């Protein structure tokens, strides 16, 4: 039985609410909350890939 849970790429807490993600040069990153996502963006802005335009 595989019961592994995804953890936040910033703080390491279990991700209970999906949707806080970023595309980076190192691959997709997932976060437990908007706060962790924002802090990661501030600290690693040179690694973040632009989001595709949704026109």
Protein architecture, described:
The chain has one helix and two strands, in the order ββα. The longest helix is centred in the last third of the chain and has 10 residues, at 34-43. Strand 1 (21-24) and strand 2 (27-30) form a beta hairpin. With 55 residues, the chain is of the alpha+beta class. Strands 1-2 form a two-stranded antiparallel sheet.
The SS-based structural class is alpha+beta
Radius of gyration: 12 Å
Give the CA-CA distance, first to last residue. 43 Å
Question: How many beta-strand elements?
Answer: 2
Summed up, the helix count is 1
Share in helix? 10-25%
* Contiguous uncertain segments of 5+ residues: none
Strand order in the sheet with the most strands: 1-2
Largest sheet: 2 strands, antiparallel
Mean pLDDT: 90
SSE string, helices as H and strands as E: EEH
Q: What overall form do the CA principal axes indicate?
A: globular
How big a fraction of the residues is strand? 5-15%
Question: How is the topology of this model organized?
Answer:
Elements: E1 21-24, E2 27-30, H1 34-43
Antiparallel strand pairs: 1-2
Main attributes?
1 helix; two-stranded antiparallel ribbon; alpha+beta; about 55 residues
Compose a concise summary of this entry.
With 55 residues, the chain is α+β, with helices and mostly antiparallel strands. Helices cover 18% and strands 15% of the residues.
